Amino acid sequence: MTKKIICKMNQKNIEILKRGGVGVIPTDTIYGLACSIFSVVGVKRIYELKKREENKPPVIIISDISDLEKLGADISPTHLKIIEKYWPGKLTIIFRVSEEYKYLDKGLGLAIRLPADENLRNILRQTGPLATTSANYSEQIPAKNIIEAEKYFGDKVDFYEDGGNLNSEPSTLVKINGDNIEILRQGAVKID
Question: Quick check: is 6 in a domain?
């Protein structure tokens, strides 16, 4: 059975994320490795844990559209149309951001999503934006529950937050150039 609403994260794990720790959390789509975007060390740990290529940026999950401004996101009229239609939701959009966050975007832009799950957004209000990537080794099957995530990472993460079984497709990933919308990964949201 697929669980749609994630559990409320305990305060200890929220503090771990705020201090730059790395955990496995349920998101609005699948389980993800997560850390604060403000922790360069945490982001590096995620890449090492996942055995991820350095040229693939993480997905940033935010609590509110106003976080885009804080990240210095370059928002075009086409971005605004897509945001109004699909956010909050399971759509990840690539933005150009301020130089301050170049360590996250790997020169490709920053992949950002505003989840629809209110519990997750409440957590994000407390932690700030989180860098995430699916809870698995690169090119392996994403974990659908904590047991599967623990098989990948064991005691190498700071905590596991259990949200039951998650069986969603990953988010749809799009890049916008002018009026053109390029679908980089077809996922849970079908773009028309």
Answer: no
Query: What is d(CA 99, CA 79) in angstroms, rounded to the nearest whole number?
Result: 20
CATH number, domain with residue 144: 3.90.870.10
Count of domains forming the chain? 1
Confirm whether pTM is higher than 0.85: yes
Note the Cα 122 to chain centre separation in Å. 15
Task: Return per-residue pLDDT of the chain as tens, 192 residues.
Answer: 333 444 568 899 999 999 999 999 999 999 999 999 999 999 999 999 999 887 888 999 999 999 999 999 999 999 999 999 999 999 999 999 888 888 888 778 899 999 999 999 999 999 999 999 999 999 999 999 999 999 999 999 999 999 999 988 889 999 999 899 999 999 999 987
Q: How many Å apart are CA 132 and CA 47, to the nearest integer? A: 10
